[in-house]
Amino acid sequence: MAVAVLILGQSGTGKSYSMKNFKEDELCLISVQKALLPFRKKFTETVVTDKYGEIIKAMQSTKKKVIVIDDTQYLMCNEFMRRATEKGYDKFTEIAQNFWSLVVQEVNKLPTDTIVYLLCHTATDENGVEKMKTIGKLVDEKITPEGLFTIVLKTAVSDGNYAFVTQNNGKDTVKSPEGMFTTYAINNDLKYVDEKIRNYYSLGEFLSDEEMAEIDEEAKNVEFEPPKSREERKRRSRNTEETEQPQTERKQRKSREEVMAENDAKREAHSAATQEAINEAAGDRDELPFDEAEKAMASVDAPELEQPPRRRRRRTE
After folding, report:
1. How far is residue 288's CA from residue 278's CA, in Å, rounded to a whole number?
2. Quick one: which H or E segment has residue 120?
3. pLDDT of 216-248, one tens digit each?
């Protein structure tokens, strides 16, 4: 039973280019849609076809331990276009079944030390989730393509920097086994990915953990960071605001008792100021008319009281 790996990404984001570090005689390339590669290298064993039978024959006859099927989504797309005039929905079931048979049944027949990489374009569904591009809901209802794979990587590009994302961000279908990849993003080097998988599962001739540790550092792509959780984003926002505020303007957080004591002092000061204003308005008179007393009291500004912090419930173990 061989290992099937899904590589997702928009056109031009480095899927095909990731094969560059393989030697010309090191893999079997099955190209569904195009014969040319985005670099000056030709693999000695290359088959250009969109027919399932010819693809299966190429996989079974090759002695290579690495098989790459490029532009895999066109297998479904081209079959759909060839059958566009057929009426009914049975063709969608058959299109889904043909793809399932390739990934599950035929790959399972290959030697255990063989890895088959399926390179596919992506699409975004109505929920904003980036997934493998198929020919629509009628096929997606039959199979969930990513569910057929244990390893799903996705290309990412930023300012001319190309990478593979190894972990799910909540809005895509990326996944990889625990501990296989040490960082969220790695360079888009399919040769390195192949070596990591062989080391992880001990497939055929594989590099030791010590040898892998050396090239792990070179493969890290630090330009891409994992998405932050909501709480982390809030914490980062608060830290940024505090950093931008001058040190002299930062307010020291007060305790509930300190705020209440300050409010009591403000009330006492206001009461004393009010009584002084009333005495001044009364002069030598023993009594002061209500309207004059009210006017004297209004001349004293009310204190600005702070809201005491809420008491925090003590956590019990």
Report:
1. 8
2. strand 115-120
3. 988 988 888 787 655 655 565 566 555 555 554
